């Protein structure tokens, strides 16, 4: 085909019809077609969500109303006894200790991890030799398996066995060699210390996650603003406090939200690093470890489901309140194309 014939062939083609209402289609038909398209696109995701989120939640609420060992269909109806009865969760002091410990982890994570990661991020956001190495050094603990982290720190913080020559784990041996032996304690065996040890381990592992989020937020701060502040005579800290940190406010709020939900549901590190004796005393257990100890291990599936429902309600309310009062400006900004 010659070039002239190709041009004629293209010219003879009918122009493409623009997307929009079909000719002669009524408004009611267009609305029905629109709803059919919406249903067709959302039905698969809604079905998966119902099967793997709503259905398990409904079963958990149902089973929590029974005394059930996990075998057969539950028949021993107890109502709200698993929640408020004489042997219910809210009457158990160990469960209240789990609530307290979860609160300590949550508040400690926000108070310690956030400022620590933000300070490191501000320092590592500056250009200097070896910056990539230090970024990797802080982030490496986060990519480690929580089970590996728990085992590693349980060996490092191991208490002396009492036999001759046993100096305990590496932490106790190091402190003794530095003349700080009087500060050595049962990091994982002292009921008054173990929850703070768990907080230290969690901070060591998850500070890297906050660091990466903050560095991503800092990368979006225009250099022109900081350069203009420097020209106006603002110091480094003044620039960070009045320009840089407010501009990454949305990133900080997202991290707070993720840290809250993760702290409420923390399980693996505490389960591996702490002993069952400490958890049974309520010294190191979280709500998730309490649920497994008293639900799965004790074959009290109805009671375990009640604890799971309580954990879900607390997490859901925390997420709802935080989204309503803290993330609202980010959601509204995303809708209008402006984020404060």
Describe the structure.
This protein has 340 residues and is an all-alpha fold. It contains 16 helices and 2 strands. The protein has helices at 3-12, 27-63, 81-84, 93-124, 131-143, 146-156, 170-177, 194-219, 223-231, 236-247, 249-264, 268-273, 276-280, 287-296, 301-325, 328-336; strands at 66-67, 76-77. A two-stranded antiparallel ribbon has the order 1-2. Strand 1 and strand 2 (76-77) form a beta hairpin. The longest helix has 37 residues, at 27-63. It is flat, with a radius of gyration of 28 Å.
Core attributes:
340 residues, mainly alpha, two-stranded antiparallel ribbon, 16 helices, 1% strand, flat
Question: Secondary structure elements and their pairing?
Answer:
Layout: H1 3-12, H2 27-63, E1 66-67, E2 76-77, H3 81-84, H4 93-124, H5 131-143, H6 146-156, H7 170-177, H8 194-219, H9 223-231, H10 236-247, H11 249-264, H12 268-273, H13 276-280, H14 287-296, H15 301-325, H16 328-336
Antiparallel strand pairs: 1-2
Helix pairs in contact: 2-15, 4-8, 4-11, 5-8, 8-11, 9-10, 11-15, 14-15
Average of the residue pLDDT scores:
84
Radius of gyration: 28 Å
**Poorly predicted runs:** none
Straight-line N-to-C gap: 59 Å
Number of contiguous helices: 16
State the share of residues found in helices, binned by percent: 55-70%
Assembly status: single chain
Topology as a string of helices (H) and strands (E): HHEEHHHHHHHHHHHHHH
């Amino acid at each position: 085909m010659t070039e002239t014939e190709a041009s004629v062939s293209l010219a003879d083609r009918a122009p493409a019809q623009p997307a929009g209402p079909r000719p002669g289609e009524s408004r009611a038909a267009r609305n029905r077609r629109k709803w059919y398209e919406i249903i067709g696109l959302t039905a698969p995701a809604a079905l998966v969500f119902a099967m793997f989120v709503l259905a398990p939640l409904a079963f958990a609420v149902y089973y929590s109303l029974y005394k059930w060992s996990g075998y057969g269909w539950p028949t021993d109806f107890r109502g709200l006894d698993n929640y408020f009865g004489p042997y219910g969760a809210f009457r158990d002091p160990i469960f209240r200790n789990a609530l307290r410990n979860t609160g300590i982890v949550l508040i400690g994570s926000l108070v310690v991890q956030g400022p620590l990661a933000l300070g490191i991020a501000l320092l590592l956001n500056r250009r200097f030799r070896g910056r990539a190495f230090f970024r990797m050094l802080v982030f490496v603990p986060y990519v480690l398996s929580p089970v590996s982290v728990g085992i590693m720190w349980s060996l490092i913080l191991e208490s002396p066995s009492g036999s001759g020559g046993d100096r305990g784990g590496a932490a106790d041996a190091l402190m003794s060699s530095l003349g700080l032996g009087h500060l050595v304690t049962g990091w994982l065996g002292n009921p008054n210390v173990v929850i703070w040890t768990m907080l230290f381990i969690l901070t060591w592992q998850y500070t890297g996650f906050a660091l990466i989020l903050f560095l991503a937020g800092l990368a979006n701060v225009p250099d022109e603003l900081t350069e203009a502040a420097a020209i106006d005579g603002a110091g480094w800290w003044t620039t960070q406090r009045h320009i840089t940190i407010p501009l990454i406010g949305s990133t900080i709020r997202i991290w707070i939200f993720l840290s809250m939900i993760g702290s409420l549901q923390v399980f693996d590190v505490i389960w591996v690093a702490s002993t069952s004796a400490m958890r049974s005393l309520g010294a190191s257990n979280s709500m998730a470890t309490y649920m497994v100890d008293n639900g799965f291990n004790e074959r009290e599936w109805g009671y375990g489901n009640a604890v799971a429902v309580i954990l879900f309600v607390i997490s859901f309310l925390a997420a709802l309140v935080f989204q309503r009062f803290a993330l609202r400006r980010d959601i509204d900004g995303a809708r209008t194309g402006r984020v404060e």
